[in-house]
Design brief:
The structure is a single chain. The chain has 7 helices and 5 strands, in the order βααβααβαααββ. It is α/β, with parallel strands linked by helices. It has a single domain, classed as 5'-nuclease (Rossmann fold). The chain has a 5-stranded parallel β-sheet, sandwiched between helices. The termini are far apart.
Length: about 140
């Protein structure tokens, strides 16, 4: 069984901005492949640009992390949609559900999966993967 780390946008942003949650994410990046959905990549790039970073510099910053960017295809879209009702009580956004759906997809493919996020509410739901709240 392979290990896969799935990063939420909040985990990537904390790492790039050297914020409180960067340490556990740094360890994750060093120990196993880290996956992020294209939806979460969009969130990261948007937030960096919003904070004044030019898009080319933001793209370079993300590339340095050497994450695997996973396309948000029809299968992942359906998975994220199926999580809507289950995650309504915690107010999960589309980006949240994209990340959680990717984690479920990784588990179904036979991977030991760990998700890194700043979203404390995710830990309130039982998942087939571990959730590490980074701050």
């Amino acid at each position: 069984m392979s290990r896969v780390n799935v990063l939420d946008a909040s985990a990537v942003i904390d790492t790039l901005q050297h914020e409180v949650g960067q340490d556990p994410v740094g360890v994750a990046l060093a120990e196993a492949p880290c996956w992020v959905t294209a939806v979460n990549l969009c969130e990261v790039l948007s937030k960096l640009c919003e904070r004044g970073m030019p898009l080319p510099k933001a793209q370079t910053a993300v590339q340095v992390l050497k994450m695997v960017i996973v396309d948000f295809d029809a299968e992942l879209a359906a998975r994220a949609a199926s999580l809507r009702v289950r995650t309504m009580p915690i107010g999960a956004s589309l980006g949240d559900r994209a990340c959680l759906g990717l984690a479920e997809q990784a588990v179904d493919a036979g991977n030991e999966t760990v998700v890194y996020t700043a979203e404390r509410a995710w830990a309130k739901i039982e998942w087939p993967f571990e959730v590490i709240v980074i701050r």
